[in-house]
Amino acid sequence: SNNYRDLRTDLSANVRTFAFYTKRVSDIIYVSSILISYMLQIIYVLLRILPLLSLLTLLTAPYLVPLYRSFKETANDIDARTGSLYTLYNCFLAMSLLLSLRARLW
Q1: Distance, CA of 88 to CA of 83 (rounded, Å)
Q2: CA–CA separation, 73 vs 48, rounded Å?
Q3: Largest Cα–Cα distance in the chain?
Q4: Whole-angstrom Cα distance, residue 19 to residue 26?
Q5: Within 13 A of 92's CA, how many CA atoms are on the CB side?
Q6: Of 13, 55, 59, 5, whose CA–CA distance to 30 is shortest?
Q7: Global confidence as pTM
């Protein structure tokens, strides 16, 4: 997300970044990188690599729509907003893993 936020500045400075070369599909790359974490979460639960309770991370999915809209409109704070989503996702994951561990011990 940081590359996309700086795209306009990089273009004016004649800097060629990953975002420059992929600007036509940048939104697909950005959203895919986030959605893959959710898909892997479900796959890992189905394969019994992660406990069922770890699906609590899906509660963070509603934050994807406003995040995507802000990415499409202006990418000024997209890295901070993406970081907030990742932090929330990982807090839910850690909480679910700790609760699952506690349930197994008792």
Answers
A1: 9
A2: 39
A3: 60
A4: 7
A5: 17
A6: 5
A7: 0.74
